[in-house]
Amino acid sequence: MAGPVGRPRKQSSRRRGTNAREEILDASAELFTNQGFAMTSTHQIAEAVGMRQASLYYHFPSKTEIFLTLLKSTVEPSLNVAEKLAEADDPASLRLWALVALQARELLGQRWNVGKLYQLPVAKSEEFAEFHASRAEVEQAFRALAAEIVGPDDPRVELPFPIALSVSEMRSNDGVIPAPWTTDSLPERAVMLADAVLDVLHAPLPENRQARTLDLLAD
């Protein structure tokens, strides 16, 4: 009788995910956020997943590619939201509020504190130029909406994006999702930061801003 096909694991997986690729990303996110990029090896990642190191390369060609995938996961959802908001007719204050709240929700809705990856020195490397370009697009989306409120020459246009990212300083990194996603509400901390951004810009808070933001996403 023929033996089992595929790439066998060393042991049963201990990670979350619907497939091996997601399990690798989960393990990598934990290791990178806890001990950094340089101190994390592909051997450690494979061990954490319960697979052979050679099998890991079937899913990702390198540790750098894993790190890039995690970095991109922190900005790509915001890029998609920014594109959708750019087509909306709502006031800039609501669109900016929504973008801040949803960026914060993205970082609060993940098991590991991947927002911390921005702070690692390696994240500035030219190897991650693709991420840098995406992040620059997201920053510009925040800046452009703020400029509609206070004018392009006001230095406060630089504040909304870092305020949204500050949610990474307000959450743990213990493997528990701080604010699991729901379809009918936004996390309290995401709402707080979005409110803070408009306060900094001296813009009034839009009425029914949570419900209107969720409606924008549903359209």
Automatic annotation (TrEMBL):
UniProt xrefs under PROSITE patterns: HTH_TETR_2
A UniProt-annotated Pfam family: TetR_N
HTH tetR-type domain sequence ranges: 18-78
PANTHER family reported in the protein's UniProt record: HTH-TYPE TRANSCRIPTIONAL REGULATOR BETI, HTH-TYPE TRANSCRIPTIONAL REGULATOR RUTR
Protein name, entry field: TetR family transcriptional regulator
Segments of the chain annotated as binding DNA: 41-60
Organism: Corynebacterium doosanense CAU 212 = DSM 45436
SUPFAM superfamilies: Homeodomain-like
Keywords, comma-separated and alphabetical: DNA-binding, Transcription, Transcription regulation
GO molecular function, one term: DNA-binding transcription factor activity
Xref: InterPro entries: Homeodomain-like_sf, HTH-type_TetR-like_transc_reg, HTH_TetR
